[in-house]
């Protein structure tokens, strides 16, 4: 049997983008390969955890030994995450690039080209991470922050606002790192400390992140 920092823990991880339909052939989405979340799922599995990976549409294979639940929209992601946490969850990691807004309505037929301009009405999507972290039975919760400016300031603000135990920030303005790349560099923040990891492969960053998360999870649960 596996023995690691997460032995016996139930871990739920969100990964990849969401897609918000505009009409039967079009959607709004974000740049996200899912590589960081999938690497985290493999790292959690290797650390001994039972892992549920809630994944938006991606083009990479699922890690073995991990239960994958495929979702499309942000609403689907919230529903699948809530159901997975209901069953019991020690650690929730939100690495998905969820669309912040969705079209107010999805047209049932393809929108035709006609006028020179068109406007799309968007409404806010539910925030999976903030919803899970606000539960009375909230697990230890780790968020991600992809920013292009003032990375540390936005990340720390997000950690406080969403009531997270840790946040992993990456500067997506650095060429060759971050979304779609195999490599990344991150800074992890918790209420009274921080650590920088990388630049390195996403798998090595995920392994080191999981060791760090495991230490903090132990401190939180005693
Ligand atoms: O506020 P922002 O979207 O930048 O926060 C990013 C973090 O929140 C990531 O961990 C992301 O997975 C999570 N998130 C979420 N649901 C949303 C929006 C963001 O879980 N609707």
Describe this protein's structure.
This is Coenzyme A biosynthesis bifunctional protein CoaBC. It catalyses: N-[(R)-4-phosphopantothenoyl]-L-cysteine + H(+) = (R)-4'-phosphopantetheine + CO2; (R)-4'-phosphopantothenate + L-cysteine + CTP = N-[(R)-4-phosphopantothenoyl]-L-cysteine + CMP + diphosphate + H(+). In the N-terminal section; belongs to the HFCD (homo-oligomeric flavin containing Cys decarboxylase) superfamily. With 222 residues, this protein is α/β, with parallel strands linked by helices. It has a single domain (10-100, 120-221), classed as CoaB-like (Rossmann fold), CATH 3.40.50.10300. The protein is built from five helices and twelve strands. It has helices spanning 35-46, 74-86, 128-133, 151-161, 202-221, and strands spanning 10-15, 20-23, 26-28, 50-55, 67-70, 91-94, 101-103, 122-124, 140-147, 166-171, 183-190, 193-201. The strands form three sheets. It has an eight-stranded mixed sheet, with helices on both faces. Strand 11 (183-190) and strand 12 form a beta hairpin. Helix 1 packs across helix 5. The chain is globular, with a radius of gyration of 18 Å. Bound molecules: cytidine-5'-monophosphate (C5P). Residues 14, 74, 94-96, 98, 100, 125, 127-129, 143-145, 158 line the site of cytidine-5'-monophosphate.
